[in-house]
Amino acid sequence: MSRKSIAITAFALFSLFFGAGNLILPPQLGFKSGDLWWLVALGFCISAVLIPILGILAHAKLQGTMFDFAKKVSPLFSVVYCYIVYAISIALPSPRTASVTHEMAIQPIWDSSYLFTSIVYFALVYIFVVNRSKVLDIVGKFLTPGILLILLLIIGVSVFTLDFDFGISQFENSLTSGVLEGYQTFDAIGAVVVGGVIIISINLKDKSASYEVKKSLIRKAGWLAGLGLFLVYTGLIITGALFQNSFDIEISRTALLSGISLKTLGSTANVFLSILVSLACFTTAVGIVTGTADFIKGRFNGSQLAYTITAIIGCLLGILMGQFNVGYIIAVALPVLMFIYPITIVLILLNVVPEKFAAPKVFRWVVGTTILFSIPDFLGSIGYGDAIVSVTSWIPLREYHIGWVLPALAVFVLGNLSKQKGR
């Protein structure tokens, strides 16, 4: 296992997580966090960096597919979980890429509607999905380095030229605000989905590599990719915080990123960033729809018809949701993420811990508890929090929208204690 192999795998992982849509989240977090930017950055990196990288480490241990993450709960639960994750992927993060493209690259130049952009956008996505063109794979190799270079320049100019004069935080709780915003990256879900792709790629390159060699390679590459994500996200958060007094407090996420780019690097670099982000968004949408169609095709015994129908549905959903602005899609995604993200997190953690602590019974108990205690957070996110407060007020951390954490931890401990007593 050479250093070159580790570096290549780390960059591949970094590129998979470094979604263009994610770039609009950290600057606004920092913008609203003011002098508590470091606390917000900590929370954001827990859910947007640490948990996804742990998901990759879990894949290094399992060396299977997405199905293997939840099969200890039950095979049926795992299938249902996979369907839900792919449905969410084509209904929310995929359309969001169209909205980001419209707001960053189309709207500043042409006076067209979100609907028109999303129709053209997903018509092109469909063409690339059904033809499985390798053009985007080739282009994609240059997108991440290009975006990364511009972002590092923006961060560098901001950190080394601006006074460290921060405003007051707009958040009631900076840490949990960062954690919950990290949900919007979808990266924990992404880790569960794309980790299997990395395993397949490694197997194709070196079929003779042992389990331990592949495990070590993925682990080292995962931590290296995580370090890169941590530095970029933290840099964007502190950059946003430094510009708190330069823009209206109600500025949108995309407008803020464009505005910061314009102030630090000028109009040319801003246009270049908009183009690169739009292309990266497009490759992400193609990847999501293709991956979903491949999954459904596999469930229907390799049916090409199932692949085509799924691609059509994915693109129609993209048009339906892509006609709304980024802020609206993020708001719609929140209730869904408040439910599915805790389940994904506990599945990742249960697959990371040593096997002796992760018996099927423990899986079932912990996942069941997480689902139960995620319901109040889900109901709260759709406006029913006050109606159920008399029932849920006793749940620890409920007011921070992470009421599932301590119950899941308690059941994990109790499940392992009962297992040991039963011996």
UniProtKB/TrEMBL annotation:
List where in the cell it is found. Answer: Cell membrane
One GO cellular component this record assigns the protein to is: plasma membrane
Protein known as: Branched-chain amino acid ABC transporter substrate-binding protein
Q: Which GO terms describe its molecular function?
A: L-isoleucine transmembrane transporter activity; L-leucine transmembrane transporter activity; L-valine transmembrane transporter activity
State the annotated membrane topology for this chain: Multi-pass membrane protein
Family membership: Belongs to the branched chain amino acid transporter family.
Chain segments annotated as transmembrane: 36-60, 72-92, 112-130, 142-162, 182-202, 223-243, 271-293, 305-322, 328-350, 362-380, 400-417
One Pfam family assigned to this protein is Branch_AA_trans
Mind telling me which NCBIfam families this protein's record contains? livcs (TIGR00796)
What InterPro entries does UniProt report for this protein, alphabetically? Answer: Brnchd-chn_aa_trnsp_Livcs (IPR004685)
**Gene Ontology terms describing biological process:** isoleucine transport; L-leucine transport
Q: Which PANTHER family match?
A: BRANCHED-CHAIN AMINO ACID PERMEASE BRNQ (PTHR30588:SF0), BRANCHED-CHAIN AMINO ACID TRANSPORT SYSTEM 2 CARRIER PROTEIN (PTHR30588)
**Alphabetic keyword roster:** Amino-acid transport, Cell membrane, Membrane, Transmembrane, Transmembrane helix, Transport
